C-alpha cells in the first residue's frame, strides 16, 4: 500500500466491493465521497440547531427559584432553604421531551462520528482525487448547512413542534 498521495484512478475504498479500476469509477467514487461529506456537515449543523434551539427554552431550576423566593438572608440561610424538601413531581412533558431530544442527539452523534471515521479512512487511501472530494464536500456542506442553521435560529424552537419568531 502506498503511503504518499497519488493521482491514480485505481483504489480500494473501505470495503472489498468498493474497488475502483477506471476513471469513470473514480469520478463516481469521488461523487459518493463528496455526498457523504455533505451529509456529515448536515449532521453537525442539525445537532447544533437541536442543541441551541432547546437551550433557549429550558425551564427554570426549581432549587434556584426557591432560593430566590426567600425574603431575606436573616430569616433563612441558603443552607437551610436548600434542606427544605421540594415536592417530587411526576415527569412532565418537558422532561420527556428533553429525554427524547437527548436520545436523538446521541443517535446523531454516533452517526456523525461513524461517518467521520469512514471519511478519514477514505482519505487514508492516499488518493488525491478522493482527498479533493472530501475537501470540496466539506466546503459545500458547510456553505449550504450553516446558513440554514442561522435562518432556523431566527425562529424559536420548542419541543411541542411550534415555531415562534424571535426578534
TrEMBL record:
Q: Where in the cell is it found?
A: Late endosome membrane; Membrane
One MF term from GO for this chain? Answer: copper ion transmembrane transporter activity
- One Pfam match, by short name? Ctr
Q: Where are the transmembrane segments?
A: 20-43, 99-120, 126-149
**Keywords, alphabetical:** Copper, Copper transport, Ion transport, Membrane, Transmembrane, Transmembrane helix, Transport
Quote the cellular component terms of the Gene Ontology held in the record. Answer: late endosome membrane
Q: How does it sit in the membrane?
A: Multi-pass membrane protein
Region annotation Disordered: residue ranges? 65-94
| InterPro entries linked to this entry | Cop_transporter
Question: Which residue stretches does the UniProt record annotate as biased composition, category Low complexity?
Answer: 65-87
Q: Give the UniProt family note.
A: Belongs to the copper transporter (Ctr) (TC 1.A.56) family. SLC31A subfamily.
Q: What is this protein called?
A: Copper transport protein
Amino acid at each position: 500500500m502506498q503511503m504518499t498521495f497519488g493521482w491514480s484512478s485505481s483504489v480500494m475504498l473501505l470495503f472489498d466491493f468498493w474497488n475502483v479500476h477506471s476513471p469513470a469509477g473514480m469520478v463516481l467514487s469521488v461523487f459518493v465521497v463528496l455526498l457523504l461529506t455533505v451529509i456529515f456537515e448536515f449532521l453537525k449543523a442539525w445537532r447544533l440547531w437541536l442543541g441551541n434551539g432547546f437551550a433557549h427554552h429550558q425551564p427554570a431550576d426549581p432549587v434556584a427559584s426557591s432560593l430566590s423566593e426567600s425574603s431575606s438572608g436573616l430569616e433563612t440561610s441558603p443552607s437551610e432553604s436548600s434542606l427544605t424538601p421540594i415536592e417530587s413531581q411526576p415527569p412532565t412533558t418537558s422532561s420527556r421531551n428533553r429525554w427524547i431530544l437527548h436520545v436523538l442527539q446521541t443517535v446523531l452523534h454516533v452517526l456523525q462520528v461513524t461517518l467521520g471515521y469512514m471519511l478519514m479512512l477514505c482519505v487514508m487511501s492516499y488518493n488525491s482525487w478522493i482527498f479533493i472530494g472530501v475537501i470540496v464536500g466539506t466546503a459545500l456542506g458547510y456553505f449550504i448547512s450553516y446558513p440554514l442553521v442561522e435562518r432556523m435560529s431566527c425562529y424559536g424552537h420548542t419541543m411541542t413542534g411550534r415555531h415562534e419568531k424571535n426578534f
